[in-house]
Amino acid sequence: MTMPVALYIVPTPIGNLGDLTPRAVEVLSAVSLIACEDTRHSGKLLSHFNITTRTMALHDHNERARAQWFIEKLQAGESVALISDAGTPLISDPGYHLVSQVRDAGFQVSPLPGACAAITALSASGLPSDRFSFEGFLPAKDKARLDKLASLKEDSRTLIFYESPHRILPSLEALEQVFGSKRPMVMARELTKTFETFLVGSISEVRARVEADPNQQKGEMILMCHGYVGAADEDAIPAKALDTLKLLCGELPLKKAAAITAEIYGLKKNALYKQGLELGW
């Protein structure tokens, strides 16, 4: 198969190798060159799918300088694919400078859909997904981390962060300090892998569970926090919560359904109960 000359953005699995799409395998096999974050890491994935395309490292330390080299390959009529160690390139991974320079040079950039840890986690979190903000990794230093969270404290969108094992407890402590202990959150860990876990509760509850269980301090983590709810919005009930309440009312008494819905979404059960009565559920 001959590929049109372009830079192809190819997502790779975040854990389960079965999540590499047939189209991704086709593109990676057909391009002239694959730019990857770590050639040794990606080599295992490519070998699994019998992909023998030449690879070249592209990471945070060499991306600006090496981008022109890849552009010269495109100018010579060679198609290039960009992958990261896991997930969609550029999402907390290298690639921004390459894509920007390739576009400036007049070449097509063609993205493939595929795995992304942030979106995968959000889809199963039970938190509002109509408006969200992906914030990547929090700063490593304590003050910078607290300052960053302070700037997001009153953001009404669902907030998504990536985190690493050695910083998970300090980050959860910072979230609790800035956002308060009661704000609802979800921690997703090791998505699509054997020990996939979702911890759901208030920030203090999730922090306590992670602190008490060393296994929850291992692997790749996504932290998702419910957006800020101001005093004027305290009794506002999200559409998703009403949908859940209505569904539960089909099987349970309104009082019980309201209690369960309140626990899921971190809302006031009395407000849910009152709304259910007004709607005749």
Tell me about this structure.
Strand 6 (132-137), helix 6 and strand 7 (158-163) form a beta-alpha-beta unit. 41% of the residues lie in helices and 17% in strands. By secondary structure, the chain is of the alpha/beta class. Helix 3 (63-75) crosses helix 4. The mean pLDDT is 94. It has 11 helices and 10 strands. The protein is elongated. It has helices at residues 22-30, 39-48, 63-75, 96-104, 117-123, 142-152, 168-179, 203-212, 239-249, 254-265, 269-278; strands at 7-9, 33-36, 54-57, 80-83, 109-111, 132-137, 158-163, 184-189, 197-202, 221-225.
Architecture blueprint of SSEs:
Layout: E1 7-9, H1 22-30, E2 33-36, H2 39-48, E3 54-57, H3 63-75, E4 80-83, H4 96-104, E5 109-111, H5 117-123, E6 132-137, H6 142-152, E7 158-163, H7 168-179, E8 184-189, E9 197-202, H8 203-212, E10 221-225, H9 239-249, H10 254-265, H11 269-278
Parallel strand pairs: 1-4, 1-5, 2-3, 2-4, 6-7
Antiparallel strand pairs: 7-10, 8-9, 8-10
Helix pairs in contact: 3-4, 6-7, 7-8, 9-10, 10-11
Low-confidence stretches at least 5 residues in length (pLDDT < 50)?
none
Largest sheet: 5 strands, parallel
Q: How much strand?
A: 15-25%
Q: What fraction, in percent, of the residue positions are helical?
A: 40-55%
Give the overall shape, derived from the CA principal axes.
elongated
Topology, number of strands: 10
Number of helices: 11
The quaternary state of the protein chains shown equals: single chain
Helix and strand string, N-terminal first?
A: EHEHEHEHEHEHEHEEHEHHH
- N-to-C terminal Cα separation, in Å? 59 Å
Whole-angstrom Rg: 22 Å
Class computed from helices, strands and strand pairing: alpha/beta
If you average the pLDDT, what whole number results?
94
Widest beta sheet: strand line-up: 3-2-4-1-5
